[in-house]
Amino acid sequence: MDPGGCRLHGGGGSDSQGYGNDGSRPQTGMITLEDLESFSEDQLSDSGNGSLEEGGQVMEEDEPDRLLHYWQDAASGHQVEVPRDMAEPIYQLTTNNEGTHERESVPFTLISRKEKCGEVLYEKRHYEKAYWACATVHEETYEQSICYGFMKLMRYICQQNSTGSYLGLTIPIVTVVNTDDQHHTMSREVTVAYHLPTHLQAQPPHPYDADIVIQEWAATIVYTRAFTGPTNEETILYQINMMAEILDSPEITLNDSFIVAGYTNPAATNRQNEIWFIERP
Question: For 186, which DSSP code?
Fold first, then answer.
């Protein structure tokens, strides 16, 4: 899956030593892409910031502000600023994801699957060429880059596009990351990407944000391994190194560019993620 103008090139980061059994380490924590996506009306009602319902009546006029304030409160402890203009995208994302719009999965063809003792080690898949909306961000930390990149895409998905309408979320939301050849460090520059829904592939809506680029990613083969839990710099490096050991022929894949795919939000008991290795052209 060649991300065209979204391709990245290695860079600095932190080393990959000292993981727990699940590849994680206690986080000092920035808010992540999944954290931003996860806030729902139920969470807001339980947050201590007031319920969205009062006397059985939904307080529609207050909902966008209440959701925004909840996001701002959650983000402030993680060195992330959620600006006022995110109120409408947050409201759109929350309400549309609670039943009025189903998420569309990015289509692929399963080529093969490697298993051991009943456990799926990895899958080999073929993804057709498709249009993706890409936001490349370079913040002080990896988690901040994901956060701000996703907020850009949220604005695009939620009306700040040439159709002026809500486009609908697709899954997974992916992040293109780069490492050094030894997979010890990761670049601060990341690309957060959103697959355009099928009905928009023929004519992708134009983004108002000049930092969002619509790219046609070439058809490609990826090797993908599922994992659960948080997606931060250290867990990603751990998963990359684990996958490199498991692959039968790691030399056929790119050695410094990878994709992290997120399917569920942190409210889930076990977050569902995948690490993707990209087959060389």
Answer: B
